[in-house]
């Protein structure tokens, strides 16, 4: 609208270079209105995803694979409503040159699309080149054009690179597409920790403990995995370096429960009982203790840290029933966070804000997930009437929560938006529990 | 104090039975032939038993204390034996908290034994939380069996 075509193609030309060398700075301003919309929690952005075009039909199988991965990936974010593409979107121009094609915006507006995404795929030997274009379908402005390159046997990473850029365009934030989820997989009575992509794809075991590894915690840099196992019948905290598979074993007397890494550090907090009572300690990745964090005769478990690492929410029975408390690590002050109900556990502090997710056991014997602001206001129930829902863990961008639920009979992993909408299964085989979503590196 | 009282109880009951038994015997002695020698005291019939708890509790009620008294007797009768006390929880509640609660149950049973004079080197504790239910059921009958301190002879 109002942009002469010559200028447009010139912009597109610049964009190609900018996108390749200086990612997505040029168009940050043009999509502010979308950022505002998604922040306000408005409905999803209606988007048309035109199947990627290929010059040579032999590359069609790659394009189809990428189409499917992009669609599933964008679906997963819950940000977009993907609309079936209308006929004849491309009406002219250079058909195999993204950003130089004539787009039929009238057809797009007839299906109420606000965003159009298309692209052209080419192959040079084993390398795929995917040239993507994104338009504002209401104004006809080009929002992004970028060339992606990748190996032909790595379609997922190629497709997800684009998905990540598209989400960043509309939210202004990094997205979940590089993130991983650690979880416990139970099979034939044995439990080991597995690591999968954000959507549950490609799950692989990362522990080998003869069938007892639980409560996994990924470090902020994603390299260390802490978990509880039993060696010769006694509890043992393992801190495993996933890059070289080396394990530090903490065999101190007594229990070790529910490790959690402190943001902005290479230390974790966990419960030890070697001094005769269960207390929380900060532990270095070599297994040595750097600091004691609690001093109380009751149960103190399940630490989780604020984004800056200065505050720690945890579960304590110091007022009788299990409730969540927040300790300020600098001041040493402790305040109670939860007051409703008699069994509030499993706190998880959002990596982007002041919200804390937790589980409450209710009078009807369901366990449900809630969120509450760190100041104790804004209590909100996210799951209802679906048996037990446990172990919430936030996506690194704070837009989603992964959790386990036995709503379908056996225990499985599910994800939902941070407000509880859009709950769906990750559809993994077997039984899974205790998910831990990785952070951005 | 509580431990002394319990110890006293443990010693008192058998000794009273002994005296009562003797009393009856003496009454019977008039002109009868000499009595057979009194029978040897029967071998200990006490066995290590599990101790049960209320929901979200590590408190020992009367039934639990009575069972622990028997366990103390067993430890006395079997001075070579060492035990592991396993703390367990029912499936309700959440995993991590139950791991802590299980340890406190095992520790509460251990404390009772120590106060009754059992040598601490003979007792180890471990928590399995809700990991190893005794009864796989999903009702109060099953849960009640699963909230326990379980004694295992090593």
Structural notes for this entry:
The complex is a heterodimer of chains A (441) and B (154). In chain A, 15% of the residues lie in helices and 43% in strands. Chain A has 441 residues and is mainly β. Chain A has 5 helices and 32 strands. Chain A has helices at 5-21, 32-39, 60-77, 105-110, 155-171; strands spanning 45-49, 53-54, 80-83, 90-93, 101-103, 115-124, 127-136, 142-151, 180-187, 190-197, 204-205, 213-218, 224-231, 234-241, 247-250, 256-261, 267-272, 279-284, 289-292, 300-305, 311-316, 323-328, 334-336, 344-349, 355-361, 367-373, 380-381, 389-394, 400-408, 410-417, 424-425, 431-437. Chain A folds into 2 domains: 5-171, TolB, N-terminal domain (Rossmann fold, 3-Layer(aba) Sandwich); 179-437, TolB, C-terminal domain (Neuraminidase, 6 Propeller), CATH 2.120.10. Chain B is α+β, with helices and mostly antiparallel strands. Chain B has one domain: OmpA-like domain (60s Ribosomal Protein L30, Chain: A). In chain B, 46% of the residues lie in helices and 14% in strands. Chain B has 4 helices and 4 strands; from the N terminus they run αβαβαβαβ. Chain B has helices at 2-28, 62-77, 95-115, 140-146, and strands at 51-52, 83-88, 123-129, 148-153. A 4-stranded mixed β-sheet of chain B has the order 1-4-2-3. The longest helix of chain B is centred in the N-terminal third of the chain and has 27 residues, at 2-28. Chain B is elongated. Classes of the chains: A mainly beta (441), B alpha+beta (154). Chain A binds chain B through residues 214-215, 228, 233-235, 254-255, 257-258, 271, 273, 278, 299, 301-302, 315, 321-322, 343, 345-346, 359, 361, 365, 367, 390-391, 433-434, and chain B through 56, 84, 92-97, 99-101, 103-104, 126-127, 131.
């Amino acid at each position: 609208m109002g942009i002469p075509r010559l200028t447009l193609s010139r912009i597109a030309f610049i964009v190609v270079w900018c996108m390749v060398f200086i990612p997505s700075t040029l168009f940050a301003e043009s999509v502010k209105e979308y950022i505002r919309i998604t922040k306000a929690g408005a409905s999803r952005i209606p988007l048309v995803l035109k199947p990627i075009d290929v010059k040579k039909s032999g590359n069609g199988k790659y394009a189809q694979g990428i189409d499917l991965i992009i669609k599933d990936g964008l679906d997963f974010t819950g940000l977009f409503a993907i609309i079936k593409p209308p006929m004849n979107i491309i009406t002219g121009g250079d058909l195999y040159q993204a950003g130089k094609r004539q787009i039929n915006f009238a057809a797009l507006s007839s299906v109420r699309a606000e965003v159009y995404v298309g692209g052209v795929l080419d192959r040079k030997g084993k390398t795929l080149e995917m040239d993507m274009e994104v338009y504002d379908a209401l104004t006809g402005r080009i929002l992004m054009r970028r060339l992606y390159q990748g190996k032909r046997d790595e379609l997922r990473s190629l497709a997800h690179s684009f998905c990540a850029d598209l989400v960043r365009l509309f939210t202004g934030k990094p997205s979940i597409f590089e993130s991983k989820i650690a979880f416990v997989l139970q099979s034939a009575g044995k439990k080991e920790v597995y690591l999968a992509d954000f959507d549950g794809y490609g799950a692989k075991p990362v522990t080998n403990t003869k069938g007892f590894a639980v409560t996994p915690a990924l470090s902020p840099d994603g390299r260390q995995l802490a978990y509880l196992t039993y060696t010769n019948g006694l509890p043992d905290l393992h801190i495993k370096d996933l890059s070289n598979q080396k394990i530090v074993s903490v065999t101190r007397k007594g229990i070790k429960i529910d490790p959690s890494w402190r943001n902005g550090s290479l230390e974790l907090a966990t419960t030890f009982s070697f001094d005769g009572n269960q207390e929380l300690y900060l532990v270095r990745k070599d297994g040595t203790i750097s600091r004691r964090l609690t001093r109380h005769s009751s149960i103190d478990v399940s630490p989780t840290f604020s984004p800056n690492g200065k505050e720690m929410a945890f579960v304590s029975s110091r007022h009788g029933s299990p409730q969540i408390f927040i300790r300020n690590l600098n001041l040493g002050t402790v305040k109670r966070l939860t007051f409703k109900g008699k069994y509030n556990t499993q706190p998880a502090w959002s990596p982007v804000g002041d919200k804390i997710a937790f589980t409450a056991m209710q009078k009807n014997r369901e366990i449900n997930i809630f969120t509450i602001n760190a100041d104790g206001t804004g209590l909100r129930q996210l799951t209802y009437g679906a048996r037990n829902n446990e172990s919430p863990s936030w996506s690194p961008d704070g837009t989603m929560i992964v959790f386990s639920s036995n709503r379908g009979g056996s225990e499985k992993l599910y994800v939902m938006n941070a407000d509880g909408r859009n709950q769906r299964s990750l559809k993994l085989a077997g039984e899974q529990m205790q998910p831990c979503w990785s952070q951005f590196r | 104090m509580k431990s002394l009282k319990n110890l006293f109880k443990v010693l008192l009951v058998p000794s009273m039975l002994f005296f009562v038994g003797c009393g009856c015997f003496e009454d019977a002695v008039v002109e009868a032939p000499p009595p057979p020698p009194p029978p040897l005291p029967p071998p200990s019939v006490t066995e290590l038993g599990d101790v049960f708890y209320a929901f979200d509790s590590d408190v020992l009620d009367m039934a639990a204390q009575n069972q622990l008294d028997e366990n103390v007797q067993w430890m006395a009768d079997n001075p070579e034996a060492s035990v592991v006390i396993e703390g367990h929880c029912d499936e309700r509640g959440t995993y991590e908290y139950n791991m802590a609660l299980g340890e406190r149950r095992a520790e509460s049973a251990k404390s009772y034994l120590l106060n009754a004079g059992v040598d601490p080197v003979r007792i180890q504790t471990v928590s399995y939380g809700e990991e190893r239910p005794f009864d796989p059921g999903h009702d109060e009958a099953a849960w009640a069996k699963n909230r326990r301190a379980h004694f295992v002879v090593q």
